[in-house]
Design brief:
The complex is a heterodimer. By secondary structure, chain A is α/β, with parallel strands linked by helices. Chain A folds into 3 domains: about 230 residues, SGNH hydrolase (Rossmann fold); about 140 residues, HAD superfamily/HAD-like (Rossmann fold, 3-Layer(aba) Sandwich), CATH 3.40.50.1000; about 180 residues, Gcn5-related N-acetyltransferase (GNAT) (Aminopeptidase), CATH 3.40.630.30. Chain A has 23 helices and 18 strands. Chain A is globular and about 80 Å long. Chain B is mainly α. Chain B has one domain: ACP-like (Non-ribosomal Peptide Synthetase Peptidyl Carrier Protein, Chain A, Orthogonal Bundle). Helices cover about 60% and strands about 0% of the residues of chain B. The chains are: A alpha/beta, B mainly alpha. Chains A and B meet through α1, α2 and α10 of A and α1 and α2 of B.
C-alpha cells in the first residue's frame, strides 16, 4: 500500500522519490472533500505543493491549489487580484521564511532605528493579514521564521539588538501575539520544525542558488505533514482518544510474569525512568483533553494492579475506558469506540508489539497506529511529532472533555435503575439553553460542524469564517443548544443553521453531538426553531437529508417530527417539508427550556 | 561499482521519480530524450541519486553534467 509511506514516522526520501505512484494510489479513493488552498510563497513552492497534496489526499481532503508566482506573496494579496478573488480560497498559506525579511539591523543602527526596522517588517505582514481579512475571509496559515543561516555576531547574535537571531526572535514573538488574538489565523511554527530537523540540514544553500527553495528537499515532507495537521485541526479532523497497550508500553516488563514489584517504573533504572517520563507525557495529554483508554492482553485484575505501583504517574481514574482481556485487540478497540461513542478515525493506538499494531491498523479504518519502535526512549518523540492532537486553540471544552465522558458513565449507571426511559430522562433534571449563535460559542460550533457524523442531516462542513458570516447574516436563523443536567454541564451539543427565503425556511445544517443522543434535545430544538420561524413570518420549513456512511440514524428524523417527504432520489437523499400550523403542540415535555 | 551497475540503479530511480516503468537510460541519454524529465523532476532525480549513493553533488559539479554518462562518472568517482 503506497499511501502507508505517508504514515508518521515516514521516510522523507521515499516519499519524494515515489510521490507520483503514491498520488496515483491515493486517487483511487473517491470520497474526498474539496478544499481550495492558495499557496503564496516567498521562495519556490512547487515541490511543497505536490507533497502537501499527498498528505491532504491521505486525509481525504482533495486540494485545489492556487500558487503564486515566485516570491509574489506580497503583491498577490496587497494589490487587486481578480484571479485570487475568483478562486475564493478556503485557506491561504503564506510560505515565507527568513529570506523574506526585507532588512536586518546593521551594526551601526541605533536602537531606535532597529525598532523602526522591526515595526516596518511587522507592519508589512500585518498589512497582508488585514487585507486577507477584508478581501477573502479565508483561514490564514502563516509561517514564522527559522533562525538565521549565519550569525555574524556569534553568540552575541541572540542577545544584542543588532543580531539577526535577536531580530528574528522578536518577529516570531510578535507573530505569536498576533495569532493569539486572531481566530482565523494559524501560525505554522517552522522555527521549531527547522530546529527539530536540524538547521544545518534544513539550510541547503546549493538548492537555494539553483532553484530558490528556502529549505532542504528532505525537509519538505516534514513541512507538508505539519501543515496538514493544521488543516486537519481547522476542519476538526484531529484525533481525540489515545488507546494504550500496557506491558512494555506504559511500563517496562510484563505484569502477569514479573508482578507488581517487577515492572519498571520510577528512577531505579534508565528504562524505568524512560517509562515514567512517558507516563508523565501521557498525563499531560489527558490534562489537555485527550481521552485515554487501555487495550491490553491481560487478566483484568492483574492489568489494573499495575497502576497501584508507587511510581505510576497515571492512575485508573485517568482512563475513560479499560479493556483488559484475551480477545483480539481490534475487537476491543471497537468496544472502546462504542462505549465512548466516538469515531474510529478519532483514535490513536500505541503498542510496542508490531503484530498487534498490524492487526489493528489493518482492521480498524482511520485509526492512527504509529510505529513507536521498541525503544521506550523514542516513544515520546514519535507520538509528539506525529501531531495527532493538533488543535487550533484550547477551548474550555477540551479541558473538560475527560469529565464529560466520566459523567456519561454515571448517567448509564443511573439509567439502569429506571424501568421507564421517560422517568430516567426526568430524573436527569435537564435544562437547555437554545439561542441564536453567540460569539462566545462560534469556535465550538465550527468544531462540531466538522466532526459530527452520526446525528448530522446534511454533513456540511464550515470554517470559522463561514460560521461568523452566517451568524451576522439576517437571512439565516441559527440556533445552538447547550444542555445541563444533574451530573454536569454538557456544553454546546447541537447546532442548526437555516436559510430564510421569503416565507420559506430551509434547514442547511442540523447536527447533534453523540454525547447527548436520545435525550429529547431534538424535540426542544424543533420547538424553538418553530418559534423563531414564526417570529420571522415563515410559513413553511424544508428539511434535507443527505445520506453518508455514518448518518443513517437520522434518515427518518424529519418524518418523526411530522414533516412530509416531498422528494427523494435513488441514493436516499430526501427533501421534507412542513407547513407551520397555528396550533402547534410543543414536542418537548422533559427538558426545561431556559429563557 | 561498475558503470553498468550505477546505470541500472539510476534507471530504477528514474522509473520511480517519473513513475514510468518504460524509461530506459543509457550513457548518452539527456533530458531531451526522456519525457517528463523537466527542471522540476530534475531536482527530484538529483536528490534521490544523492540519497541512494550517499553522496553530495556540489553546485559546480551539477552544472557540468551534460548527460547520464557524466553523472555516472561523477557517482563512480565519489563512491570509490
Amino acid at each position: 500500500m503506497m499511501e502507508n509511506l505517508l504514515n508518521y514516522p515516514f521516510d522523507a526520501h521515499l516519499i519524494l522519490r515515489k510521490k507520483r505512484a503514491i498520488k496515483r494510489s491515493l486517487l483511487q479513493n473517491s470520497d474526498f472533500t474539496e478544499k481550495k488552498i492558495a499557496i503564496l510563497g516567498g521562495s519556490t513552492t512547487a515541490e511543497i505543493k505536490e507533497i502537501f497534496e499527498l498528505f491532504l489526499l491521505n486525509e481525504n481532503i482533495k486540494p485545489i491549489f492556487y500558487e503564486s508566482s515566485y516570491n509574489r506573496y506580497y503583491e498577490d494579496i496587497v494589490f487587486d487580484n481578480p484571479q485570487l478573488r475568483d478562486f475564493a480560497p478556503d485557506i491561504i498559506y503564506i510560505h515565507t521564511t527568513s529570506v523574506n525579511i526585507t532588512s536586518f539591523p546593521r551594526v551601526q543602527d541605533t536602537s531606535a532605528e532597529i525598532d523602526r526596522l522591526f515595526q516596518e517588517e511587522l507592519d508589512r505582514f500585518r498589512q497582508l493579514w488585514q487585507q486577507i481579512e477584508k478581501m477573502y475571509q479565508s483561514v490564514v496559515i502563516q509561517n514564522n521564521f527559522e533562525l538565521p543561516y549565519a550569525r555574524t555576531l556569534g553568540n552575541l547574535d541572540v542577545t544584542d539588538l543588532h543580531g539577526s537571531t535577536n531580530f528574528i526572535q522578536r518577529l516570531n514573538q510578535a507573530f505569536a501575539d498576533h495569532a493569539r488574538q486572531s481566530t482565523n489565523f494559524h501560525l505554522h511554527d517552522i522555527n521549531y520544525l527547522s530546529s527539530w530537523f536540524g538547521l544545518e540540514k534544513w539550510y541547503d544553500k546549493s538548492l537555494w542558488y539553483t532553484s530558490k527553495y528556502a529549505l532542504n528537499y528532505q525537509a519538505i515532507p516534514l513541512l507538508a505533514y505539519s501543515l496538514t495537521s493544521i488543516v486537519k485541526s481547522i476542519h476538526g479532523k484531529s484525533k481525540k482518544c489515545l488507546v494504550l497497550d500496557l506491558d512494555n508500553t506504559l511500563w517496562g516488563g510484563v505484569i502477569g510474569d514479573d508482578g507488581l514489584d517487577g515492572i519498571q517504573l520510577g528512577k531505579e533504572t534508565p528504562s524505568a525512568e524512560a517509562f515514567s517520563d512517558f507516563q508523565q507525557y501521557i498525563k499531560k495529554l489527558k490534562d489537555r483533553g485527550i481521552i485515554l483508554a487501555v487495550c491490553s492482553k491481560n487478566d483484568p485484575q492483574t492489568a489494573r494492579r499495575g497502576f497501584e505501583h508507587p511510581d505510576s504517574i497515571l492512575s485508573l481514574d485517568d482512563f475513560s475506558a479499560f479493556q483488559a482481556n484475551w480477545e483480539s485487540k481490534d475487537q476491543n478497540i471497537l468496544s472502546i469506540a462504542q462505549s465512548l461513542n466516538i469515531g474510529l478515525d478519532s483514535l490513536v493506538f500505541l503498542d510496542d508489539n508490531p503484530a498487534e499494531r498490524n492487526i489493528v491498523s489493518s482492521q480498524i479504518p482511520g485509526i492512527a497506529v504509529p510505529d513507536i519502535t521498541e525503544d521506550v526512549s523514542r516513544y515520546i518523540a514519535v507520538l509528539d511529532k506525529g501531531n495527532y492532537f493538533n488543535t487550533t486553540s484550547l477551548s474550555q471544552d477540551d479541558l473538560q472533555r475527560h469529565r464529560y465522558y466520566a459523567e456519561n458513565v454515571r448517567r448509564f449507571e443511573t439509567q439502569a435503575r429506571f424501568r421507564n426511559y421517560d422517568d430516567y430522562l426526568r430524573s436527569l433534571e435537564m435544562e437547555i439553553e437554545i439561542k441564536p449563535f453567540a460569539s462566545l460559542y462560534l469556535e465550538r460550533i465550527t468544531q462540531l460542524t466538522n466532526k459530527t457524523n452520526q446525528f448530522n442531516l446534511t454533513t456540511r462542513r464550515y470554517t470559522l469564517a463561514e460560521i461568523e458570516a452566517i451568524a451576522r447574516d439576517p437571512y439565516y436563523i441559527t440556533l445552538y443548544a447547550r444542555l445541563r443536567d444533574k451530573f454536569g454541564d454538557n456544553g454546546v451539543i447541537s447546532v442548526l443553521i437555516a436559510a430564510v427565503k421569503g416565507r420559506e425556511l430551509h434547514i442547511d445544517l442540523w447536527l447533534m453531538s453523540c454525547r447527548v443522543l436520545k435525550r429529547n434535545v431534538e424535540l426542544a430544538l424543533m420547538d424553538s426553531l418553530l418559534q423563531y420561524a414564526q417570529d420571522k413570518g415563515i410559513d413553511s420549513i424544508f428539511g434535507y437529508y443527505y445520506p453518508t456512511p455514518k448518518n443513517d440514524m437520522v434518515r427518518s428524523l424529519y418524518g418523526e417530527m411530522g414533516f412530509k417527504q416531498i422528494s427523494s432520489n435513488e441514493k436516499g437523499a430526501a427533501v421534507w417539508a412542513c407547513v407551520i400550523s397555528q396550533n402547534y403542540q410543543k414536542k418537548n415535555q422533559l427538558i426545561k427550556v431556559l429563557a | 561499482m561498475t558503470s553498468d551497475e550505477i546505470i541500472s540503479i539510476i534507471q530504477e530511480i528514474f522509473r520511480d521519480v517519473l513513475d514510468d516503468e518504460s524509461v530506459e537510460i543509457k550513457r548518452e541519454t539527456t533530458a531531451e530524450d526522456v519525457e517528463d524529465w523537466d527542471s522540476l523532476s530534475h531536482i527530484n532525480l538529483v536528490v534521490a541519486i544523492e540519497n541512494q549513493f550517499d553522496i553530495k553533488i556540489a553546485l559546480g559539479e551539477l552544472q557540468l553534467l551534460k548527460n547520464v554518462g557524466d553523472m555516472v562518472d561523477l557517482i563512480g568517482r565519489k563512491t570509490e
